[in-house]
Amino acid sequence: MSADAPLPKLDLVVLDCPDALALAGFYAEVLGWELQAGSDQAFATLVPPGGGVSPDNPDGRATLAFQRIDDWAAPTWPGGSHPQQFHLDLSVPDIARAEPAVLAAGAKVHEHQTSEDGGFRVYTDPVGHPFCLIRG
Length: 136
Fold this sequence. Notes:
Elements: E1 12-17, H1 20-31, E2 34-35, E3 43-47, E4 63-68, E5 88-92, H2 95-105, E6 108-109, E7 120-124, E8 130-135
């Protein structure tokens, strides 16, 4: 980028899914974030405590959104015909203590675990997106 051009700020990360409102509900429970007014089954946005980046909150944090895709196909990580393109790492002080709440919200422990030192654990959300709890 040119030296005089403003640097962009990450505003929104969007995950494709079969039902935006349902998946937003899962992540709202896991993260303790709020559902933004106007969210529906086609497009739903979560806002972290303190708000997200927007013209009204230029120093905020990125938000997480969900977009319904009619022909949704779950990722087949770690390989397969529809491999993972993207995943979320969620930092927690203690994975073992955080895991029960994530599972109660609807996550599943993924069968494929690659951490050799226990620094992270792989899960899938209710529609199959892999995500990790990482020791942070």
